Amino acid sequence: MKNRRQKHERSSSFTGNSHRKSTNKKEAQIKIEKKEIDSVEDEIKRLNKAIEVSKQQIQALYQHTLKNIGQEEAKIFEAHMMILDDPEYFGQVQQKIKTEKINAEYALKQVTDAFIEIFQNMDNEYMKERALDIKDVSDRIIRQLLGIKTVDLSKLDEEVIIIAEDLTPSDTAQMDKQKVIGFITETGGRTSHSAIMARTLEIPAIVGVEGIIANVKNGDIIIFDGDEGSVIINPDKETLKQYKDKKEKYEQFQNELKQLKGKPSITKDGCKVEIVGNIGTPNDIEGLIKNDAEGVGLYRTEFIYMDRDTLPTEEEQFEAYKKVLQAMNPKPVVIRTLDIGGDKEVSYLNIDKEMNPFLGYRAIRLCLDKVEIFKVQLRALLRASIYGNLKIMFPMISSLEELLEAKKILQEVKRDLDSEGVEYASNIEVGMMIEVPSAAIISDILAKEVDFFSIGTNDLIQYTTAVDRMNQKIRHLYNPFNPAVIRLIKMVIDNGHKQGIWVGMCGEMAGDPKLIPILIGMGLDEFSMSPISILRARRIIRNIERKEMEKIANQIIDLPTAEEVERFIDENIAID
What we know:
The chain is 48% helix and 13% strand. It is an alpha/beta fold. The protein folds into 3 domains: 4-25 and 151-256, Glucose Oxidase, domain 1, CATH 3.50.30.10; 40-146, Enzyme I, Chain A, domain 2, CATH 1.10.274; 269-572, TIM Barrel, CATH 3.20.20.60. It is globular.
């Protein structure tokens, strides 16, 4: 099969290409036969023993991931531990063993298949992909019951590209990054664990390549481009040389980016901006420091509240915020208050199921209703403020009333701390996210009440275009080049500047190489992005002139379609 090309949506934000002999990840096939048992008690003991061994393995994976990858990624295995401790799940398995007098592995497979079907029939793409967690845990227990050994991706003899139906969190967590130079999977999407891990580990990956296993065998030469989403199986010599050259240029480009560490993010004509990073946990700070971030533009505090059974205490939150502020001091740290709801569920809050959770009881709406939860977080933030340069940001503000109420509660917490003699910084800037069209439209009014705006483009695009960004069927309509989105962003920046406040952006658009020059032309002051995008963004900014980009941005505002906006950028701005 020569030069067989396949084109797919890229699912790793890491840009690069790889060519290497493939390793088709095929473990011993799990064959489960239904068997009658003599002793229910012995069979349940066998099941419980397999569960205990699996718990030990997952705990080891958790520690390995926490140490070598990060806290957010390690939370995947906290979720696996919760499945292993789920009395309803294993209660059903035990009940099957008792009532049907069948072997543990068959009973477990039946119950697991029923749970997976429930998840896969949900409308939410994120929840569909969480079925993989249940399958991963179940397969691990079944392998223990059957005595099947697992393929160890941490012990590889040569550099490989892994081809698999899908890679479980366990697979990706223990990958030898020095040997696994990339992977391609048949299933999965941008929110799957394998895609998330690929971005974190900076491993080129393409997911959702239908038929790849059937078309590839061990020892085949594969080229795949994690940036373009293309796969070439058994290329000819000319194509192979072309991609070898491309890879060398890419590696040279990465080395050039490293030379930008410590350099200012300033355009050729002297316009200085800030390039900062998005984080979810204190452990993510390491990636920001490694990539020379100028601060934190978005600290998503909801991860402190997730994957646990009770609310985090004031002291727990204080320690987390303090750690980040100290690590980045004196650089700015923008911490977003609790943004739970939508696709981020917290079971112990007992929030009712909603027909449309993204338009429902979430973020600031929840905080203004559950004021005591909000106040605990604000107390922790204020107490931590003396350890660095804190800026507090409210999410999903859609009206002036909400903003004024949030600010009022913040003042109440300050008065409480004053009466207790608790110290906090006196110069904390207070801002809000612009992620709802109504907020963008009245941004001239809102700008009078805050010190800064941060445009959350992921939700702003979703709400402006009425497109669920998790819905694969209409994903093509979720487009950052949409003229309505471009116009709203320009409006927000202009209204913010008229009131003398700075305007940042913390959505994916902020790190998009094509859009960075346009955002500079619109006057954006701060760009917050994934750590691995920072140095490339700095390079782009240092190679353009603000005045020239301003002219191009003004021309783009009048274009009628997303296609024309993107084409105009391609034709008028050279981005390397």
